[in-house]
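Researcher: Sit down with what I've pasted below and flag anything odd:
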Amino acid sequence: MGQQTRQEKIVAITKEKGYVTIDELANKFAVTPQTIRRDINALAEAEQIRRHHGGASYDSSTTNVAYATRQILQLSAKEQIAKRIAAEIPNNASLFINIGTTTETVARALLNHQGLQVITNNLNVAAILSGKEDFTVIIAGGTVRSRDGGVMGEATIDFISQFRVDYGIIGISGIDPNDGSLLDYDYQEVRVAQSIIVNSRNVFLAADSAKFGRNAVVRLGNITQVDRLFTEEQPPKPILELMKEHQVRLELCSSQS
C-alpha cells in the first residue's frame, strides 16, 4: 500500500473512531510505529487530524470524542494541571466543579485536602469525593447524561445560582486560538458552566494544550472571563495577548512545577 493511500485510510479510520493509537494503526497496516508517526505528523500539519502523544484524533465541531477515550487523552497533562490547581485550593474552601475528564482528574488531586464543600453537576466527581468524611459534596439536580454522568438542565442552572463559592473549576472542549472563545458541544452543558462562572469568586480554567484550536459548535464565553488558565504548554500568541490585556493569570503546569 502506498503512503498516500495509507494516509487516506488513517484519516477515514480516525474520523470513524474519533481516536486511534499509533500501535493500533501500525498493526492494521503492518508497518512500523515510526512510519505511522510520520504519517500522523504529515496529516496533522495538513490539519486533517489532530496529533496526540501515542495517537491521533479527528475533530468534529458537533460531536465530542467518546468519554472513555477522553479519559486517557492527554492524561499526563491533565494530571499535571490537576496537581497545580489542587495546590492553589486552600482547605475549608467552597468549590464548583463542572463536567469533564480534566475536572474529574482535579477532583482526585483534591483528596488530600480537608473540609472542602463541593457543588458539582458531575456524578463522577461526586463519586470520587464523597468518600471523604470531612467533605461536603452537593449534587445539582437535573437530567443525567448517561454517557459521562453529567447533570444538566434548567433545574441544574437554578440550583447552582443559589450558591456563591470561592472557586469555580471548569473544563472546556475547545478554545479558539485567535479570539479566545471557549467552545463546547452541548448547549445545556454550556449554560451550566456559564452559571458557575457568574457565581464563583475565582474562576479556574483547566485546559490542556490540545484544546487550543479544537472546534466545537457552542460558544460558552471567552477566556477573558476566567481568573486563571491552567495548562501545560504556552498558549498561542493571540491568547497570551488577550490574557495580558484582561489580567488573566497563566499557570504553566509541568512535572517540574
User: Anything to note?
Assistant: The chain has a mean pLDDT of 89. DSSP finds ten helices and 15 strands in the chain.
